[in-house]
Design goal:
The chain has helices at residues 2-50, 72-97, 104-111, 125-159, 162-167. The chain has 168 residues and is mainly α.
């Protein structure tokens, strides 16, 4: 009997080691499940506590000292120069592409022959009225544009006073 027990000792030792290993694995599994349960309970309690709780701002957002965009002075100057450039380019283009004869000398240079006679333009009373009306319309349009620019300048001055531009 003792001899058999002594011979069975290594096998029993292997079974004991296997049981201990299974026990340790089961114990670790149990502890991880307990941790998960505890974390779930803590999370549930935190949600219950925070339902009516108000949050405090720890670090409030800071407003910038000057705006990043748009750079209004640059936009204003750029639009001014672009407008003037486009106006001059348009006037130059119209003048360059206009090939009409304005006087007798233009015609003589073009055909390389002398002009024998020219018929002067006859202006009737009706033509004078049309010319006067066109001048009045042009004058009113010009004065309206100038008045509009002045009003826009005044509005801009009151919305953005000089100290607004100096700070930038």
């Amino acid at each position: 009997v003792y001899r058999r027990r002594i011979e069975d000792t290594p096998r029993k030792e292997q079974e004991l080691l296997s049981l201990q290993r299974d026990y340790v694995n089961t114990q670790k599994n149990y502890e991880s499940l307990l941790d998960k349960r505890l974390n779930a309970q803590i999370a549930a309690n935190m949600e219950k506590m925070q339902k009516g709780e108000r949050f405090q701002i720890l670090d409030p957002a800071q407003t910038p000292q000057k705006p990043f965009r748009p750079n209004r002075p640059r936009i204003f100057l750029l639009s001014l120069f672009l407008g003037l450039g486009c106006g001059f380019a348009l006037a130059f283009g119209v003048e360059f592409l206009d090939h009409s004869f304005r006087d007798i000398d233009d015609l003589e240079r073009f055909i390389d022959l002398p002009v024998l006679a020219s018929i002067p333009k006859i202006i009737t009373e009706e033509d004078r009225k049309k010319i006067n009306l066109q001048r009045k319309v042009l004058l009113i349009a010009s004065l309206s544009a100038v008045a509009l620019l002045i009003v826009l300048g005044i509005i801009h001055f009151f919305l953005f006073p000089l100290d607004f531009w100096i700070k930038r």
